[in-house]
Write a structure and sequence with these properties.
There is one protein chain. This protein is of the alpha/beta class and 286 residues long. 34% of the residues lie in helices and 23% in strands. The strands form 3 sheets. Strands 4-3-2-9-10-12-11 form a 7-stranded mixed β-sheet. The longest helix is centred in the last third of the chain and has 15 residues. The radius of gyration is 18 Å and the shape is globular. One of its GO terms (biological process) is endosomal transport. It comes from viral metagenome. This is Methyltransferase FkbM domain-containing protein. InterPro entries: EGF_Rcpt_Signaling_Reg, FkbM_mtfrase, SAM-dependent_MTases_sf.
Length: 286
């Protein structure tokens, strides 16, 4: 009989990672609220732990409540910079180190929409929505090196590094010594939308970076690309993939809801009480 593995991630990368080890350690950059469509929430529920980083303070606050035993940081991850320009987007996704061209293209190709495709209606991009910060501001950023040196003080082996930063991948990887920290598996979301929004070289840069640092391509889950740091981990990854292909393991998707959508549907504003209502609702789903 097939064994069920649940997934909170629409691409199911979390179900794959859940089988690489028991109670491992992750670093999740661009975690948002760390629940809906997230690659490490399942791992957290399975007894893993780690560092979760998101630049948006409102989403980081939700994550702190959802994951009280993780180290959750509200900060920009890029380079060490006291004055980093950042787009804080109410959705959490599409917030990124500011790129004027990318910011304007998102309005046309991603963030907009008509009728049923735009459930949130017309929103001023520089005013808070549902209580979520929505603006362009300057804040301090820290490199991933600095974050790991400060917060992984016991030098725990990183089993999974997940990066989902909506177009700021180069800024993070350029200032990250991946050889020093040597995560076993690296998962980077590369938006397909970037390919038609303009001449953005994120995918090319990421692939070259991983190759130059001797990381081995393993597989993709939709927009999530996974590499590993050794032939041993590559074999482990292939063996896990075969278990899914043979139906030894089957994925049961947990259909969570984005916190903004939850607040909008229930006519609520963001505060600690509504955050806890949201988390209680998520927990009722599984």
């Amino acid at each position: 009989m097939a064994k069920k593995v649940i997934s909170f991630d629409r691409c199911n990368a979390d179900s794959f990672f859940s089988l690489i080890t028991d109670k491992g350690y992750y670093v999740d950059i661009g975690v948002r609220e760390g629940v809906h469509d997230n690659k490490t929430f399942l791992l957290y529920n399975n007894g893993w732990s780690g560092i979760c980083v998101d630049a948006h303070p409102d989403y980081a606050n939700i994550c702190k409540i959802a994951r009280p035993t993780d180290t959750v940081l509200s900060m920009i991850c890029g380079k060490d910079d006291k004055n980093c320009k950042f787009r804080y987007n109410w959705r959490g996704s599409f917030g990124s180190i500011y790129n004027e061209e990318l910011d304007s293209k998102r309005k046309l190709y991603v963030i907009g929409g008509d009728g049923e495709n735009c459930w949130y209606g017309e929103i001023d991009e520089n005013k808070n929505y549902l209580g979520f910060k929505n603006s362009i501001e300057h804040s301090e950023s820290q490199s991933l090196n600095t974050i790991l040196d400060k917060y992984n003080t016991s030098n725990t082996k990183i089993d999974v590094l997940s990066i989902d930063v909506d177009g700021a991948e180069q800024e993070i990887l350029k200032h990250f010594d991946i050889k020093k920290y040597n995560p076993s598996f690296v998962c980077i979301e590369i938006e397909r939308a970037l390919e038609y929004m303009g001449d953005f070289k994120e995918k090319e840069f990421i692939f070259n970076y991983m190759k130059e640092h001797d990381y081995i391509p393993l597989c993709t889950f939709n927009e999530d690309y996974i590499w590993c740091n050794s032939q041993e981990n590559h074999k482990l990854g292939i063996d896990i993939l075969k278990k899914f292909e043979s139906k030894e393991f089957v994925v049961q998707n947990i259909n969570t809801i984005h916190p903004c959508n939850y607040l909008h549907k229930n006519k609520l504003q963001l505060n600690e009480e509504t955050i806890r209502k949201y988390i209680d609702y998520i927990n009722s789903l599984y």
